[in-house]
Write a structure and sequence with these properties.
Blueprint (H helix, E strand, L loop, with lengths): L3 H9 L2 H94 L2 H17 L1 H23 L4 H22 L13
Helix pairs in contact: 2-3, 2-4, 2-5, 3-4, 4-5
């Protein structure tokens, strides 16, 4: 059930503005579908840095006033960005393992096999985290595109088919064509 406040506010928007919002979200969903792996790290660093800065500011302010808060915000932003990027990567691997464990448990009814598959999926997710992130962002982006197509008046069935095709194509593009950048660029030969 939709939030009544949000629904009422959305219905009072001009239809042209609603269409404009759907078009912007459609573009962002397409970017996420085809290039989400490239945007993932900076986005996670920004979120972690922001949260770390807020916590650091609060703790620093309690200890040393406004100057302590500003210093705490700088330190917290740096640590928050680094920690959040690592925690999110780990959480994605754990989520993939839990989902596979539950699916195998439901399909086979054997908890030992499900546990083994869950551990294997976790290890593979940690090793191939960039591909997992690419597939995950392709799924999320294509779902956003599907919802936006429905908001723009496209039939639900056609929007679902388009989202499914985008999900598959986006996953393939992000796992096959978008390669991880090396940590250090190669040095030029002299």
């Amino acid at each position: 059930m939709a939030d009544p406040i949000f629904g009422a506010a959305w219905n009072q928007l001009d239809p042209t503005l609603q269409m404009f919002i759907f078009l912007i979200a459609l573009g962002l969903g397409a970017i996420l579908t085809f290039a989400g792996k490239l945007l993932w790290k900076p986005f996670m660093l920004i979120i972690g840095g922001f949260l770390g800065s807020v916590v650091g500011f609060i703790l620093g302010f309690l200890i040393g006033g406004i100057i302590g808060g500003l210093i705490g915000a700088m330190i917290g932003g740096f640590l928050g960005g680094a920690i959040f990027a690592v925690i999110v990567r780990f959480a994605i691997s754990v989520l993939a393992a839990i989902i596979s464990f539950v699916l195998i448990e439901i399909l086979t009814g054997n908890i030992v096999i499900a546990l083994i598959v869950g551990v294997v999926v976790f290890v593979l997710s940690v090793i191939f985290i960039e591909d997992v992130i690419g597939i995950l962002t392709a799924i999320i982006g294509s779902l956003i595109v599907g919802v936006c197509l429905m908001g723009l008046g496209i039939d639900v069935g056609l929007a679902a088919i388009a989202a499914l095709i985008l999900m598959i194509v986006g996953s393939l593009i992000q796992t096959i064509f978008i390669k991880d950048r090396p940590a250090h660029p190669p040095k030029p030969q002299t």
